[in-house]
Each structure stands twice: as C-alpha cells, then as structure tokens.
Model the fold of this input.
Amino acid sequence: AHVRDELRIEAEVSGTKVTILERRPSWDGTGTDWLRSAIAQLRFEAETKRWALYWPDRNDRWRRYDLEPANVERVLEEIDDDPTCVFWG
Done:
C-alpha cells in the first residue's frame, strides 16, 4: 500500500494469455500517464490443461521460460521467486 503511487502490478487477459505488467508514473512527472513494462506472460495450453511461462527479451519478444507447464499457482510462484532474474531483474 505504501508504494501504490509509485508502482502497480496489473494483469491483462487476451484469449488464453495473461500478461503481467509493471506500471509506474511517467519519469517526467507531468501527469496521469503511467508507463507499462511487460514482466511475464502465462499461456494456457489446452492439450495439457497447464500454463506455460514466457519472459520478454530486450526486444520485447516473448521467450519460453524453462519450466514445465504447470498449474497457475506454480507458475506465479516461479515469477515471484524469480531464480533466474528475468522477471524482476
């Protein structure tokens, strides 16, 4: 709650994809526009009924993360733990 004016984590759903976004106020502090950065993307795989995890490279291309498709709780844990530092740096 103490950083709500400085940082927001949001999710954007499109079909079978959920994109996790980090939102911050614009650097120049001129107003209401918030910058958005993609952190991770979960993709539901219908054939396995599991979620696959992706991370954005420096060119904003989605790369598959080395994690076996899993339930959504496990995928969210991996993002939160970030053992390879590709999500939170």
Q: What stands out?
A: The longest strand covers residues 34-45. The chain has a mean pLDDT of 92.
